[in-house]
Specification:
By secondary structure, the chain is mainly α. 50% of the residues lie in helices and 9% in strands. The strands form 5 sheets. Strands 1-2-3 form a 3-stranded parallel sheet. A 3-stranded antiparallel sheet has the order 5-6-7, with no helix packed on it. A two-stranded antiparallel ribbon has the order 4-8. Helix 11 links the parallel strand 9 and strand 10. Helix 21 packs across helix 23. It catalyses: tRNA(Lys) + L-lysine + ATP = L-lysyl-tRNA(Lys) + AMP + diphosphate. Its main location: cytoplasm. Keywords: Aminoacyl-tRNA synthetase, ATP-binding, Cytoplasm, Ligase, Nucleotide-binding, Protein biosynthesis. It is found in: Cytoplasm.
Length: 532
């Protein structure tokens, strides 16, 4: 059955939002109708050799965005599989786990056969799978979790493994030209699991009977073994495994990082050898840490899932990763406040947009069209600076400042801001407080400007305490003192009054913090005492 294109679907496509562009590719592949299995299958893969990180979440989130876009265009049934390669042999001990000696003693074994160094699950693979699923569930993803170990051992992959055995020579000849001379001597698409040690072996394999899937190899002790490739006695090499999975599950869409472009090409060739069509997908750029290095699960550099969620909401992370997926992004703590504010700015803008603009908005894709109506009376950046200057240690004190700035603002009226206060207090305690460095005005120009600002703030009527009016007075104080570049004056305000090199618009901060409280700060520094 071909799905007719509705007016709203046409409008969605015209938005040029990248998830809709990806969904259109998939629609063309399927010729406008559902596949024989009755649904369109999206897949995302996960290698549980290290702890889950934001790069893992990124792939599930972006794939979910394409899935939602496809459903909006077609109304066809879809499924998302999050697949764990947990039958891979543990190649090295990650840097960021306890009990490293225990892991070292189990190198080479499938991750689901390696003891859990944290002592909370049956295996290291199960531990990392559980952490990934816990986060995906927290975010509310709709997915089915598949374990490679379960798929191999249950027989789900048996028919495709037998097909692979039947075309063994064709498959191996796809991979061998890409390998070095030494690696070619031991390479096989099948990795037998040693029946004596349980280690995943990388040894030459001879196919004795392709139709029956019977292979021969030497085990860890050099003894000849003959096994069928079904039932979990082997797993496949990575690129072959990917193609085998696409075939066995009939995957329609899977995206991958830029570093896997060549792997996608080879796996696609093998998928065709097996008699099918490779899935649609696209290659996204990678996340980098603050040094510009690729984020790695085993190194533990960059942000972890738990770290982002300690300081900001999942929605802010989803907003950050929606933007420019083909552009490399740095992922470290300092980008969190801006990501939060950008999300709420887009959320507020969304309410006034027409349907075409909404389809283009990141918040439509984050929430699958069911966009909340949360608003904020103050920005997260401003809230962080208020926490900093006010030395607020609880939400009650923060709300007293906010209600002064925005009369009638309460936790009940602004539940999103109430949640952000929890994040702000944690962020300040962990990152802002340790790096505070107040200084005194160090030039006559700065002293003159702070004195002028005090005079101007004292002259304001109570009805003129709005942020824009105060900001005008801040500008004027800098001009009165003779600053040639007002950026130098604002920098002095941040360093002297907030103990940091930059911050929000000073007008907004002063309006939120309060004129009397700000005057007290200025009096202190004019008296020659640095703030603490």
């Amino acid at each position: 059955m071909t799905v007719p294109m509705t007016d709203m679907a046409e409008l969605a496509l015209s938005s040029k939002a990248w998830p809709f562009q990806e969904a259109e590719k998939l629609l063309k592949r399927l010729k406008g109708g559902a596949p024989e299995k009755g649904y369109v299958l999206f897949e995302t893969g996960y290698g549980p050799s290290g702890l889950p990180h934001i790069g893992t979440f990124n792939e599930v989130a972006r794939t979910s965005m394409v899935r939602r876009a496809f459903e909006e265009l077609t109304g066809l049934p879809t499924k998302l599989i999050c697949f764990s390669d947990d039958m891979d042999g543990l190649r090295k001990v990650p840097d960021n786990v306890p009990n490293k000696d225990m892991l070292a003693a189990n190198l080479g074994k499938p991750l689901t056969a390696v003891p859990d160094p944290f002592g909370t699950h049956d295996s290291f693979g199960a531990h990392n799978n559980a952490r990934l699923k816990a986060f995906l569930d927290t975010f509310g993803f709709d997915y089915d979790f598949y374990s490679a170990t379960d798929c191999y051992k249950s027989g789900r992959f048996d028919s495709t493994l037998l097909k692979l055995a039947g075309v063994y020579d064709k498959v191996i000849n796809v991979i061998l030209p890409t390998l070095g001379e030494e690696r070619r001597k031991t390479y096989s698409p099948f990795l037998p699991v040693c029946p004596k040690t349980g280690v995943v072996l990388q040894v030459p394999v001879t196919v004795l009977d392709g139709a029956e899937g019977l292979i021969a190899f030497e085990d860890s002790e050099g003894e000849r073994q003959e096994v069928r490739v079904t039932g979990g006695t082997v797993k496949c090499q990575w690129k072959v495994d990917w193609a085998m999975r696409w075939d066995a599950l009939d995957v329609d869409y899977e995206m991958a990082g830029k570093d896997l472009i060549e792997s996608v090409k080879l796996s696609s060739i093998i998928r065709r050898i097996l008699g099918g069509q490779p899935p649609e997908g696209f290659n996204y750029e990678l996340f980098l840490d603050e040094k510009g290095e690729k984020i790695s699960k085993s190194k533990g550099n960059g942000l972890s899932i738990e770290e982002w969620l300690r300081y900001a909401s999942p929605e802010s992370l989803a907003f950050y990763i929606f933007q420019s997926p083909k552009k490399a992004k740095r992922l470290y703590f300092d980008i969190i406040p801006k990501a939060v504010d950008d999300y709420y700015t887009a959320l507020e803008k969304y309410t006034g947009e027409d349907s075409a603009a909404r389809y283009k908005s990141a918040v439509w894709h984050i929430h699958g069209g069911h966009v909340p109506s949360d608003t904020l009376p103050v920005s997260f950046a401003l809230l962080l600076n208020l926490v900093s200057a006010a030395h607020a240690e609880d939400k009650a004190k923060l709300w007293s400042f906010v209600s002064r700035y925005a009369p009638g603002a309460t936790a009940a009226a602004y539940p999103a801001l109430d949640r952000l206060m929890d994040y702000a207090l944690k962020y300040y305690e962990d990152f802002v407080r340790p790096n505070k460095a107040y200084r005194l005005p160090d030039t006559e120009t700065e002293l003159s400007a702070f004195a002028a600002l005090k005079h101007r703030l004292e002259a304001l009527d109570p009805g003129e305490h709005d942020a824009e009016t105060i900001m005008t007075e801040v500008y004027s104080a800098g001009k009165d003192a003779g600053f040639e570049n007002l950026r130098d004056w604002f920098k002095a305000c941040y360093e002297v009054l907030l103990g940091q090199p930059q911050g929000p618009r000073m007008g907004g901060f002063i309006a939120l913090y309060g004129i009397p409280e700000t005057l007290s700060l200025i009096d202190t520094v004019l008296a020659g005492k640095a703030l603490d």
